[in-house]
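pls read this stuff:
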Amino acid sequence: MGSPSWKSPILWTTLHAILWFLPLALLPPIAPRFDEMSFADYGVELSASARWVIQIGHMLANLMPIVAAALLIVLAFDFAAIRHFRSRPDRRPAGRLWIAFMAVLPMMFVGFAVIAIGLPWMAFRHRLAG
């Protein structure tokens, strides 16, 4: 049997790169805006999860070169792992789990961030509306 194809690992790693890049690129500019808002002035308390998401956004903004380098390392490992799992048919189920894990994890973080920030934001807008 010949060597495994390069197409599939490149496609999956590209998809993973997009899914991981979006929260890392969008959170740093958005989180400081929520930090600057005075939720307490309108009787809206930020939850611990919202404060955590805002702190993560600040940390990502401050450490962006390191985060970018770490993402490249993770994606290189991702490519190697997918290629390894696809090299033999008996490893393909583990490869599918790896592909799903690398796709679902950033989406879970985005969902968590949207809920953690979105709920206080909706309460804040409700208080502003009267």
Observations:
- The helical segments are 7-36, 48-62, 64-86, 92-129.
- The mean pLDDT is 87.
